[in-house]
Amino acid sequence: MDRGPQEPGPLIVTEDENLLDDLLRLCAAAGTLPAVAHGGSARAAGWESAPLVIVGEDCVHRLRDTGRRAGVVLIGRDAQDARVLMQAVEIGAERVLGLPDGESWLVDRIADAVEGDRRPALTVGVLGGRGGAGASTLACALAVTAARQGHRTILIDADPLGGGLDVLLGGEREKGLRWPAFAESRGRVGGGALAESLPQLHSLRVLSWDRGDSVTIPPPAMRAVMSAARRRGGVVVVDLPRHLDEAVSEALAQIDVGLLLVPAELRATVAARRVAAPARAALRDLRVVVGETPGPGLPEAEPARLLSLPLVGTVPWDPHLADSLARGAPPGAHAREPLARFCTEFWGRVLGGAEGAAGTSGTPGTGSSRPGGLAGTAGAAQSRSEDGGEAVS
């Protein structure tokens, strides 16, 4: 589920108060709280168990009896100084850094160490083929269902004009950060720190909009937030607008599977063609979900055929859904509802029972109301900034 024990932070070994202040600040930027061996034994403070050890050059002498371990970074006033490089060899450091030049690299290294080698989240984006198709409702239901099954889940509202997914989930008053707080984000955002800062609704974390004026999210901020959510592992669901700008293109670049929700109507299918064209150019995998209509409509497979896209399945019409939402029940909350059943079957085929399992293969559904198997490929490359630090071999 969403909450769990705090990931262990790095160990800092230094007596230099100014350096300690700098390192504490960098750990906070990486979203973690370190242990500090300040005046005590590094071994007793967690030398062997810490995911990363950051050593000030003033304390190298304290480590001569601790033994070698991987994941040691030495901070020196001059990373090119021969004496500092010899100290790094002595303690088996993987890299020597000088601050402030090495700050960006060190924040990334701390975050990598704390978050570990967790498999990136399977990321599903939901698009409406036309206005009012129900894409936001489907996105919420997918997230609620994934969380109910025990997967780490983040729901990201990428549509500033959609009214807010926190409202749809009944959590507009829940404490936590909204999109405006991340508008200036650049570079690395810690996945754990991101999740802990967001409202928790129905066992999942939700990044939505506040009630103020619309805020434009710059592409670097979207890239940073999406990357952080993916690094946390589990499942990420993104509610996408039909109009694709540069920020939305950044989101699409990190989505494994795109679901285009198209009501079973000819006019809706024609409208969906205009949405599908740019989305298909940016997405690695775009598929159609057909929304059943209350009256006569197109045959189930026809929208997918007309759009030349694989069919995932059909969401059955539920005459009670509007009343359920009006009563404050989140989409997908009741396992027997048609929408919840669709989402449960979808995740069963995509995740195959393993949290964050990307690469699940299968044959797309072509004539069944059940979701077809999908081939999601998680693990978009993460860019990392480099500095002038010296790697020690």
Automatic annotation (TrEMBL):
CobQ/CobB/MinD/ParA nucleotide binding domain mapped to chain residues: 126-330
Rv3660c-like CheY-like N-terminal domain: residues covered: 13-117
Gene3D superfamilies in the record: P-loop containing nucleotide triphosphate hydrolases
Region annotation Disordered: where it falls in the sequence: 355-393
Domain of life from the UniProt record: Bacteria
UniProt xrefs under InterPro entries: CobQ/CobB/MinD/ParA_Nub-bd_dom, P-loop_NTPase, ParA/MinD_ATPase, Rv3660c, Rv3660c_N
Signal peptide span: none
Stretches with biased composition (Low complexity): 357-372
Listed SUPFAM superfamilies: P-loop containing nucleoside triphosphate hydrolases
Protein name: Septum site-determining protein Ssd
Organism: Streptomyces ochraceiscleroticus
